[in-house]
Amino acid sequence: MVVIPGPGSRELGEKIASLMNLTCSHPIYRVFPDGESYVRLSAPVAGKDVVIVQTTYPNQDKRLLELLFLVKTAKDLEARRVTAVVPYLAYARQDRRFAEGECVSIHVVLDMIRTAGADKLLTVDIHKVDVLKKISIPWVNISAAGELAKHLESRAVRPSLILAPDAGARDLARKIAEPLGIEHHFLKKIRNRETGSVRTLDEGIPRAEVVAIADDIISTGSSIANAASVLRKRGVRRIYAYCVHPVLVGGALVKLKDAGVEEVVGTDSVPSEISAITVAGVLAEAVAQFGKGSSS
Ligand code: R5P
């Protein structure tokens, strides 16, 4: 088995290969003057099981195309089996037609990954797991919740509550809170689909002095900033923000700080300045298990 990290996940791919004691073969990657991507595998893959590790942010369209190039090339060069490890799968939030005529973008993305020749797909905390049922190859969606919980456990001042900023993150909050033996709760968030702005309702939050807000993605930071403002009004002393995928658009970190968040922590599913937690361990484990596994 060989690990091929794409340009979006060089370090993460190396970590996975090292944890699994596998060869890590970096492809040659260039960008032509007009912006087109070029990839070339640097070692033969014929007859081998190939694991391509490529996240799809920042620059989702370019990263996606590079992923497809790598998968297709490995198949063309007769790899035995290609596993696409895509820690952050872009476009997952557009998982249905919210308005008449919209493209269900994630269906297109999944279709492209399969058509390029991936035999298996492995991702981390996809926005809604059900969407993976649309892809007709085996898949696994792993959760980084346990890694987030370990990070929280190591803090000098631990939270007594994990708060999801919306119903969609409720499961993530539960999975973080349970191993820590603390409470979890979720807020009602209303998003204006036209403007993207969000409103958060202050409903039934259990009493806590230290709270960690947890979400799958931090994009503009508005969801967590709103939740933090609600907590501040209730006199919560310390607020941490945790996410799996730190997309961090524009001034997201400033927005969170202004809202009273003491520290923001994310994983390296998306490389960023706050990616203090690695998903290499859970991904390596999942890749090792995948041979036996079914979709989950
Ligand atoms: C959507 O519901 C996701 O789970 C996140 O809550 C959302 O992407 C966060 O976006 P933002 O940081 O822009 O509020």
In round numbers, the mean pLDDT is: 96
CA(first)-CA(last) distance: 23 Å
Percent helix among the residues?
25-40%
Q: Which range does the strand content fall in?
A: 15-25%
For the sheet with most strands, the description reads:
6 strands, parallel
Give the tally of β-strands: 15
List the total number of helices: 8
Uncertain segments are none
Radius of gyration: 20 Å
Q: Which ligands appear in the coordinates?
A: ribose-5-phosphate
Which outline best applies?
globular
Write the H/E string, N to C. Answer: EHEEEEHEHEEHEHEEEEHEHEH
- List the strand order in the largest sheet: 2-1-5-6-7-8
Structural class: alpha/beta
List keywords for this structure.
alpha/beta; 296 residues; globular; single chain; binds ribose-5-phosphate; 15 strands; 5-stranded parallel sheet; 6-stranded parallel sheet
Protein model, in words:
The model has no long low-confidence stretch (mean pLDDT 96). This protein is α/β, with parallel strands linked by helices. The protein is globular and about 60 Å long. It has 8 helices and 15 strands. Strands 2-1-5-6-7-8 form a 6-stranded parallel β-sheet, with helices on both faces. Strands 10-9-13-14-15 form a 5-stranded parallel β-sheet, sandwiched between helices. Ribose-5-phosphate binds next to strand 13 and helix 6.
